UniProtKB/TrEMBL annotation:
Gene Ontology MF annotations: acyltransferase activity, transferring groups other than amino-acyl groups
Residue ranges constituting the N-acetyltransferase domain according to the UniProt record: 17-181
Name by which UniProt lists this protein: Protein N-acetyltransferase, RimJ/RimL family
Source organism of this protein record: Jannaschia pohangensis
Entry keyword annotation includes Transferase: yes
Amino acid sequence: MTGESEALGALPEMTGPRLHLRAPCDADATARMALGYDPTILRAYGAEVADQASYTEARAQSWLAEQRQAMAWMITIDGRLLGTVRLHSHVQADRRAQIAIGLLDSANLGHGYGTEAMRLVLDHAFDGMGLNRVSLRVLADNARAIRCYTRLGFVTEGRERQSARVPGGWQDDLIMGLLASEWSAQGDA
């Protein structure tokens, strides 16, 4: 089975004002294991913090393999791993894909790193790959992520009611989308 990154060609490296996006490498498993599970990050994904054991080497290797099978970029600053951003569910005939981002350490939240990483990948998605649409899903109570996505121009297009099982019950997912014309108009403004 061919991974999505292989099907879409080699990942270009991208550099922004503060961070660098690159393809996964062997050292990322060690860096990921050192970061472990961050309770703030887990809660943002709707995961039960108490259910998470220590982050093992086997889990880190599995995580790295998942990144290599996806069109995933490692978000780094001065060589230090901050997280990942990836395009997935690419439908070439419709010129669309979904985007997902995950910072791995809550100390990196609120500094604009996620917004910068998303901008780089969105530029590549629309200008480099010629996509017409990029969408995402986010837990309805993840206000920090929703602010980031809205700042980038994503529009809430729908709500899937009780689609995510989270500690204490259910939560809705918001479906957000961004069109190439909307992204282009931001650059013109």
